[in-house]
Amino acid sequence: MKIAFWTPLPPTRSGIAHYSSMLLPGLADLHDVTTVVATEEDVAAFESSAGRRAPLRVIAADEGLATELEFDLAIYQLGNNPHHEFVYRQALRKAGLVVLHEVVLHHLIVEMTLARGDVVAYVDTMRRNHGQAGAAWAEGRVAGLHGEIGNFLFPASLEVASSALAVIVHNDYARERLRSFGVGVRIEVIGHPFVEGIDMTAAPDPASLASTRRSLGAEPGDRLAGVFGFVTSAKRIGVVMEAFARAASRDGRLRLALVGEPAPNIDLPAIAARFGLERHLWTATGYVAEESFDRYLEAMDCVVNLRYPTAGETSGALIRTFAAGRPVAVNRYAQFAEYPSDVATPIPIAGGEVEALTLFLSGEGPQPTAAAQRRWLREHCSLAGTLGGYAAVIDSAVDRSRVEADPTEPIHASFPLFPNLTLSSLEAIVEKGSALIRLSVANAGPATMRGRTYGEVSYRMIVKLMAQGREVSSRWLELPCDLDVGDIAHCEVSLPAPRGKVTLELHHALEEIENPISRPWFRAEIS
User: Which terminus has fewer CB within 10 Å in the chain: N or C?
Assistant: First the structure.
């Protein structure tokens, strides 16, 4: 079978480039594979880069477009950065097998449209992905009303996923997230591969290891913690530095290394200063070339890999941390909650996050073991297993491509930006400086309202008590369950209440998003 494999390749600064370089030799043993990269310059860079001697056929996208009729199937490797623009455009142009390394593609869409001044394309793309709610959010962003959480509320991957012959993701959370938005094509979960190219049980050269540790500020006897990859706000670097500062105040032998380039909006010295973290206790390497990654990883005593919110990715850096047998901490959240506790230490998000991470950094409490990590990798992430999963999906995708696919239905199952609740019943008991309020609310909107934490921002209702035009008390409530269209949820809350006339107000909200000018959707005097 002739396959066009659209992807960036090394030395492009992309984890997906590394992923593809692992996968392609084995896939080329099974099929006639041609790899399509963005430009002729990328072809030359791959062919001349050190250590890239695998006999792969690589062409540029222009050439791939010219010869696309020669292929039985296109496989598209998609990630959330500009390196994948050429892949994204072709995936919408010609249906194929889409590998979504992360559910969120919103950042890529912004780079392709809004960052170039193309407001219309941005709004239209958000409308095609998320209906009128997506378009409204896009128009608000164009007007200057923007919060980073919107990129995760509206992942903007639904159009490309729904137009595919099939979709591959790397964890159960990503599949369920796409399903929750109404994506109906086949979605297969296939493990992110790791390759034991060298004997991972062999100890690194002691002199080289000591030299690397010294370059990171660690002397013999120090405990060195590492954070790997592109440093963004989603990696909770403020939490990491706060926890490290607490741990280091108790143990002067702790050191922190940030191995990767920070995003433009991340000021590492300012964050460290906020928590009183002295400069000699931490270091930042900036971007690290692919061939140096494992050397830095081997130098670590432990690794921190926090995420919130998440794009739904399976971290290649985390997989390599498991392969290296290093204790690692992850947030107990979304796809990261799928790892057993003997493979990755779970860190809560709501309540106790800093405290739990402080203990981990100090080496206290149960720690993941290299044996458990290696066992988990072999069960879930072997290269042979990944290739076998690809082979099964490729066969079904080719079969589907030989018949006319059903037209894609518009997607309107995204999170309701403008929820529509109605009050079914209200009971309020006001006495002794307190108000006990029991509410029954019905979902009168067009989509399910997510009430609990699914690794996505959820609906919240703010209950306020007002007296003489001023707020006297309030409470944020989460729904006790997911609320399908027409369903009713029952909530109860107790609030401090002054004597005299009190007015109850109910406001819509989204988790962690403040709205100081919100208007109540229900108001009634209760005393």
Answer: N
What CATH number did the domain enclosing 248 receive?
3.40.50.2000
- Cβ atoms 17, 7 nearer than 8 A: yes
- Judge contact between 490 and 523, C-beta under 8 A: no
**Residue 465's Cα: distance from chain center in Å?**
37
Of 152, 121, 153, give the one whose Cα is nearest residue 139: 121
**Cβ-count burial of 50 within 10 angstroms (0-12 exposed, 13-18 middle, 19+ buried)?**
exposed
Owning domain of residue 509: 421-525
Rounded CA-CA distance 363/368 in Å is: 11
CA–CA distance, 201 with 330 (Å, rounded to integer): 24
Query: How far is the C-alpha of 213 from the C-alpha of 430, rounded, in Å?
Result: 64
Count of structural domains within the chain: 3
Q: Could you give the strand order of the β-sheet that contains 434-443, starting from the edge strand earlier in sequence?
A: 421-431, 434-443, 488-496
Both 467 and 505 in one domain: the answer is yes
**pLDDT tens column, 212-231:** 999 999 999 999 999 998 88
Collapse the DSSP code of 465 into the 3-class scheme (helix H, G, I; strand E, B; otherwise coil) and give the result.
Answer: strand
Closest C-alpha to 96, from 2, 163, 185, 35: 163
Please list, in sequence order, all residues whose beta carbon lies within 8 angstroms of the beta carbon of residue 393, skipping any fewer than 6 positions away: 97, 166, 168, 186, 188, 190
Strand partners, 504: 465, 524
- In this prediction the pTM is 0.76
Those residues whose C-beta lies under 8 Å from the C-beta of residue 63, and which sit 6 or more positions away, are: 36
| CB burial of residue 221 (10 Å; 0-12, 13-18, 19+) | exposed
Distance between alpha carbon 266 and the CA centroid of its chain, in Å?
18
**Helices in 310-369 by DSSP H: which ranges?**
316-324, 353-361
Q: Is 426 helix (H, G, I), strand (E, B) or coil?
A: strand
The position carrying tokens 């989460």 is 478
Cβ neighbour number for residue 57 with a 10 Å cutoff:
12
CB 79 within 8 Å of CB 102: yes
Please classify residue 387 by burial: count the beta carbons closer than 10 Å to its beta carbon, then call 0-12 exposed, 13-18 middle and 19+ buried: middle
Residues 332, 237 within the same domain: yes
**CA 328, CA 343: separation in Å to the nearest integer?**
8
Q: Are 56 and 10 in contact (CB under 8 A)?
A: no
CATH code, domain carrying 447: 2.60.40.10
Reported as a single tens digit per residue, the pLDDT across 230-269 is 888 889 999 999 999 999 999 999 999 999 899 888 999 9
Residues 396 and 471 in one domain: no
Q: Between 97 and 410, where is the model more confident?
A: 97
Rounded to the nearest angstrom, the gap between the alpha carbon of residue 234 and the centroid of all alpha carbons in its chain is 8
